[in-house]
Amino acid sequence: MSCLMVERCGAISFESPDQNALCIHMLGDGSLRGQTAVLSERRGSYPFIDLRLLNTAVHPGEIGTKKKVKRLLSFQRYFHASRLLRGPSPHSSLHLLDEDYLGQAAHMLSKVGTWSFDIFLFDRLTNGNSLVTLLCHLFNVYGLIHHFQLDMVKLHRFLGMVQEDYHSQNPYHNAVHAADVTQAMHCYLKEPKLAGYLTPMDIFLGLMAAAAHDVDHPGVNQPFLIKTKHHLASLYQNTSVLESHHWRSTVGMLRESGLLSHLPTDMTQDIEQQLGSLILATDISRQNEFLGRLKSHLDSDDISLEDPEHRHFMLQIALKCADICNPCRDWDLSRQWSERVCEEFYRQGDLERRCDLEISPLCDQQANTVPVIQIGFIAFLVEPLFQEWTRFTDGSLLAECMLGHLRKNKERWRQLKCREQDTDTPAPGTEQQGTGTGVP
Ligand SMILES: [Zn+2]
């Protein structure tokens, strides 16, 4: 096997020097030179895997056949060089920024607990370092560095790894989403109903899980990995495949950075397990399981926050809320997230179409508009969860504010959907046979 250099850029990409070549990288879009590539990854025992669909030999149109796709879905292990050897990340060039920008970012941090916090602006002001900057600030604010006696160099190293392993070319599942979820988590940790009971360990776990919950997300969903027989799907037996990968990657980074190496082994093992339990709770297919348990607890009024298990459950719920809170933000922020997540769905759909795979639900741009996807998302997933969260908080100011945004945003998507239908409906007398609205 020949060995090549692959330069990581932290992204999933579909690079195609000609129309017949297609690469999907779990990590880094890289510039592939030649036929094969090997990188080194010394992070625990979970090397990153690139899914490559390479077809340089077939004629245009042939890539669509099932036979070709099956043959071409080979999995390649790329072992990335340790960051210790690679030197500092180019993303850590905060000093290159105009001091005005840093001043504005610092000013934004003074209001990090407000629900209108604009994470997109913050990310621009920090030159794409929103996740590292936010986490360092929150660890300081909560006194976690002092409490756990954390080494600042190791903390920076760990957070830099996490941020870098998000794929910046994913429209949605990137480091800004992680920073957004972390900021929301911070708001939830301050809820009066919860804050008084939380230990430093609870806060540490909540923030860490939020920051790392989607790390190395490939920009495609679990059904895609299963139907393309990605090795991660078989490794995790087709269950919580992505979430398991996010968790195990986080554990690998924790160990490589040595962030917790000064703590007793049983403590670090407990942290790793609890991080897993929190990150795995973000699997949206387990929504009903968590929602049912939350409803049951609230109905019987038996949540006891002195109980560590109950606190852990509420941290799971808080993280789930933070992960899908986009429709509860101001319209301007919420709309941007909606467009980004749909763009990611559509990219997957385009890829499936090119590979003659069945197009996944919501991924067909012709059949699913942004308003239609958002209305369904809000009605079936977001609203039921946030109604129960509001009940848990006894209708806190923040919870009511979020529900208010949610209802307004849903109404706006409804109006946009109606407008689209009006636009797509032919004027009387101009109907043509076989034309459709494109909206289900
Ligand atoms: Zn997420």
From TrEMBL:
UniProt-annotated stretches for the region Disordered: 418-440
Residues engaged in binding Zn(2+) 2: D214
EC number: 3.1.4.-
Broadest EC class assigned to this enzyme: hydrolase
Cofactor: a divalent metal cation
Residues where AMP binds: H173, N174, A175, V176, H177, D214, D323, Q374
Single biological process term from Gene Ontology: signal transduction
Note on how the cofactor is bound: Binds 2 divalent metal cations per subunit. Site 1 may preferentially bind zinc ions, while site 2 has a preference for magnesium and/or manganese ions.
Keyword check for Hydrolase: yes
Domain PDEase: residue ranges: 97-420
Pfam families: PDEase_I
InterPro entries documented for this protein: HD/PDEase_dom, PDEase, PDEase_catalytic_dom, PDEase_catalytic_dom_sf, PDEase_CS
Binding site for Zn(2+) 1: H177, H213, D214, D323
Catalytic activity: 3',5'-cyclic AMP + H2O = AMP + H(+)
Pathway: Purine metabolism; 3',5'-cyclic AMP degradation; AMP from 3',5'-cyclic AMP: step 1/1
UniProt keyword annotations, A-Z: cAMP, Hydrolase, Metal-binding
CDD domains linked to this entry: HDc
The keyword Metal-binding is assigned to this record: yes
Top-level taxon in the UniProt lineage: Eukaryota
Active site per UniProt: H173
GO molecular function: 3',5'-cyclic-AMP phosphodiesterase activity; metal ion binding
Protein family (similarity comment): Belongs to the cyclic nucleotide phosphodiesterase family. PDE7 subfamily.
Stated name of the protein: Phosphodiesterase
